[in-house]
Amino acid sequence: MTTVLKLGGSVVTDKSEPETVDREALDDAAAAIAAADTTGGSDAVGTADSDGLVVVHGGGSFGHHHAAAHGVTDTEGTHDVEGVLAIHDAMRELNDAVVGALQDRDVPALPVHPLSTAHRDSAGETTLPSEQVETMLAEEFVPVLHGDVIAQSNEGATVLSGDEIVTLLARQLAADRVGLCSTVPGVLDADEVIDRIERFEAVADALGASDATDVTGGMAAKVRELLDLDTPASIFGPADLAAFLAGEQPGTLVQRRR
Known about the structure:
Helices cover about 35% and strands about 20% of the residues. It is an alpha/beta fold.
């Protein structure tokens, strides 16, 4: 069983302070991951039935302000190499913190930097090869990817969000489960958590997000992307991370009715 887990940038960083890790929240997340059986054990290595966890994290207070300063989005790019490096270096610094927190808990985490592996064509279609991640999983490592800048034809470099990485890997790895750990306990309608989402139209009013908001990774964009997956996806808060890793479906289950 393969699980793709997204740790939201707001979960692991203090978004009110540029480039500040929320150490307590990150350690709590690392502890929950460490307590779960994420590698399947030595008897399962290299088999189709072995467990595997892929972690993806967002930018939080690290990459976003650099991207904004250089006018870089998922559709608008830059050829300014200093700007590209500023965004990437900030995300690499956060990735180091996430990988370090996991390794401190004896989770066999290893970094995977999308700038060095992914690219976009001139039409905006993203290619993120999964062979490196698949090999890491087979060898009982926990790959840790992150939102990043990637080269794009005719645009220089553009942003690849953590949410897009989640959906790309979920498809390529034929993941069994997807989880998005956010700062909210699920998709909210007023103050109530929506238990299940099967059609976007049914929750569009509650999400209340425009296409412009979707570009920045709003909840509406997340739900749309997850509904296109064959894999069931859960959106939940940090308090439910351990439950999700234990096999439960906390928060909001997003799965299109087939």
